[in-house]
Structures are given as structure tokens and as C-alpha cells.
Amino acid sequence: MSRNERTILAFDSAGNEYFIDMFVSVRDLSDLQHTGPVSDGPSSFRTREGHSVTHLGGGEFAVTVPGEEEAITVRTDDPEFV
Description:
- By secondary structure, the chain is mostly beta strands.
- It contains no helices and 6 strands.
- It has one domain.
- It has strands at residues 2-11, 17-28, 38-47, 52-57, 60-64, 72-75.
- It is globular.
């Protein structure tokens, strides 16, 4: 099960904006009788249009658009990633 953790606003070199949704995979570790912990897995990223996004490090992301040869590099000023 995945849940939307947050949304990041990023821009390419031409100033176009990209809304990137960060998802966290969540596994329920509880059993039927007890309310137990929830374990968070690694984060995954996708644009609002459903394009795959790779976190390159810091505030940089690569957006893979079908039909394009190369990924588009976008940057964010979001304090969690800068």
C-alpha cells in the first residue's frame, strides 16, 4: 500500500513547473488482535501526469517523459531536499 507523503514543486531550466508527488510504501505489521506498528519503506516519486521521477540528490530530480530521449532535469527549493 502506498500513501502520498507530500508534493514538491520543481522547475526545469525553461521555468516550466512540475508537481512531483512523493509516495511512501507502507506495510501494516499489526495482526488481527492487536494494533501494531506501521513500517515505512523507500520513497517513490511521480509527476501529477504519472511520469516516472528519479531523485538525483539534493534538490535535483530527473523526469522521464515517454517519447523523449533524455530525462528532463528539474530542481526544487523545498527545504527537505536542498
